[in-house]
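User:
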Amino acid sequence: METVTHDACLKAPEVKSGEPVLAEAFDDFRRTFETFKEGNDKKLDELERKGAADVVTVEKVERISKALDEQKRAMDQYVLRGRRPPLGLEGPRSAVNLEHKAAFDAYVRGGNEDGLRAIERKSLAVGSDGGYVVPEETEREIGRRLASVSPIRGISGIRQVSGNVYKKPFAITGAATGWVGETAARPETAAPTLAELAFPAMELYAMPAATATLLDDAAVNIDEWLAEEVETAFATQEGTAFVTGDGTNKPKGFLSYDKVAQASWAWEDIGYIVTGVSAGFAEDDPADGLIDLVYTLKSGYRQNATFVMNRKTQAAVRKLKDADGNYVWQPATIAGGTASLMNFPIAESEDMPDIAANSYSIAFGDFRRGYLVVDRVGIRVLRDPYSAKPYVLFYTTKRVGGGVQDFDAIKLLKFGTT
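Assistant: Predicted structure:
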């Protein structure tokens, strides 16, 4: 039985501090990918010569592919931690910000509301939904963390609003135009027909709990603790809604819009092309479906486009080659970078469906122009020391909306025949 080379590279790297550790883990990842290519090339050669691949070869390729996923996941966690600067170490800190931070700290630790009441009375910012607005730098840090861990937010357009709904007009028909001679009369042109897209901001909440000991510990940065606690809860809910949300009490995901074959595409629909095979890529030149998807997108969108898929789909794409025998998937060129597919970056979203019959498992587009995330300014916290004694709950809410703003900027690959 053949042994797998580079066995030491097949373990996921430990997430530690220090750039040399990340660089070493990244080198291991690159070596593992080279081993994966060797094994997959052998499997493809056996398929071509014998009509079937050796079981040992198949198991080897699958084992290395899983190791690549684990290594990538561990490096992603490390990079994410490295991108989190301590709160309060950047940006101007005015007297108002310091006052707000001190008042918020007193409220979270001991329930003293006097300082926050005075601040919100001055700014006329008292809300009807209870709780108090977190300091500006805390809100900024939560937003930065969400952009790092929420894949769709990280590539989408973002708009901050002070109201509950963001409305965006768009032209259904443009103004009439025409050619005329130098001295010919200029007939009056028709006015453009406008319509409106509305993006309501829905309430998203998290409820982290703290012990009295943690709140009494002066060494604990309460702002940073709160940001860490709500980060995962907010990011998980957002990520799902931006992909598959139905628009009821949550953002509308881009997979929830009507989907039509690209040949029949119209505004307010998401266009798709098919692989020609149910639940898979075409057997002959399977990468051609990805090439067709890329060129389905207009050139103005293509230059800033990103592939979106989950990790399992990416593992399948990793095995594909182009007509010249080159792998279409390539690992990141630098530590902390992004893998690419046909030279376009890949955003991993576990909310994208696995490859199955008639699934829309791969999206491609300029999401910064195509999908809009709407954040209402202000994250509020309500302290609750009664509901879960001896713990103190912090009911934290933010309002966020989302939806497609340019239906021509996102295209899908359907794993089916029609």
